[in-house]
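Q:
Just now I want nothing more than another pair of eyes on a protein record. Here is the record:
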Amino acid sequence: MNRLRAYLKSYRRESILAPAFKMLEALFDLFVPLIVARMINVGIGESSPAVIKQCFFLLLALALTGLVCSFAAQYFAARAATGCAARMRRDLIAHIYALDASRLDAIGEDTLITRMTGDINQVQNGLNLFLRLFLRSPFIVFGAMIMAFAVNARVSVIFVFTILLLSVIVFTLMKRTSPMYRRIQAVLDKLTLHTRENLSGVRVIRAFGREEDEKRAFSASNASLTALQNVTGKLSALMNPLTYAAVNLGIVAVLYAGGRGVNAGALKSGDVVALVNYMSQILVELIKLANLIVTLSRAGASMSRVAAVLDTEPGMDFPEMEQSCSETDAAVEFDNVSFKYGGAGAESLTDVTFSVSAGSTVGVIGGTGSGKTTLVSLINRMYDASAGEVRLFGVPVREMTKSRVRGLVAVVPQKAQLFSGTVRSNLLMGNRTAADVELWDALEKAQAAEFVRAKPLGLDEKVSQGGRNFSGGQRQRLTIARALAKNASVLILDDSASALDFATDAALRKALNALHGRVTAFIVSQRTSSLRHADMILVLEDGRLIGKGTHAELLERCPVYREIHESQYRKEDAE
């Protein structure tokens, strides 16, 4: 909650004005039963039309003034709540971008999505109600009790016992339901994960005929969430009937004691009506307070989950000062580098050492799970090495600023990822100032210019979410063009030509070879034909570097590489 208070400091004026206007409205409401009592006791009891008219116009004025105060309170509360939620979302997304890949892996994408949307919405709703009711409801409850004592102290003792009983009911139920709401949010995370996996993998599920299995699995997760919500909902549902019962019993007691007082001449009819009105006000406000507590319980659980992400410290720090790079030094160096993913039992890379001169083309090959993607992910510092040191142009990557590291390296990931927008907006992600000539040059080198020109709008052709309106091969070529448009010193292609046919792959390799001397390229591939012209090929097996050299050298002295090549050569020869 300290973090929420920090956000409210920016809306201090609204946070004061919202409850202040609600307090004014509540104050006017407390005077209503007294005016009604005067109307009955004096205006009706003593047949005084002037008093009745006076009381009527006074009630009307209080109602109109209260309405204005209510609108003002709602405006300021909504302004503060939506403003805090907007800032919280902004800070959350900024913090997520600041987290390293290992932290994001540990938290999980499904959890981040739920906290960015549902949790912050719960906090916004809770804050809105809190600013409007956190002072009004207690003020009305205790104010009504004090005003009741002003009417008749003896009968008003009933109010004390009623309020104590209601407090026990409300706080007991709140204590039981608060942890349940936290559990609901945790189960909701799992359901969101299941939904996300089903939606992203719907084609695979259909291809393997697993629709019924996934339906059953989803139904089980949904049933678990529903059962927990039902239990929590039943407990929360007890709030209204129990509070109504307690207050109605209080009203019966007030009517009984008030009737006896009227018969004895100690009370007037209007006083009894005023006492009943005060008891009714307590009932209404306690119902509001009960609902507020339920909402605040949810908001508190959601705020704790949002704060947990915001309190997660990044696993790597970047220096603020720029480090100079010397183009004469080796472009990339690995010095006894080892790496282990968080929670993994074994290392993904072990004692990897190599040096690549600037302008070279390096191939990376190995079996599935050998550590190829992990190796290239350390170059642009997506992860930090567990041991050893990675250097770019002679400078350890740990000593380089984030903008410098990311500016030097362009990456084409394994999974082609495009963003909704246009072809142009996707290509400009790495180089915002690139001219159309540069974009078309990048498309030509990536073998993507032909199909982009065939589109009616060319560079301004729309790209749907994830690039779904392009084929797999087209998406890969566009992601390669995006990396080339960046004009980075180091280019990493992480198995980025897997969806390309041999002819397109060969044309792409020829275009990349033309960059030789200007760009240091790392090409991760399963095909030896894609790597045979590389200046150096790294062969990985179980996270260890077991071979390093040219294609001819590795065929001669690296059995693993030779086995990979011969298995593919026979297959390609047959084709």
In short: The chain has two domains: 2-310, 332-574.
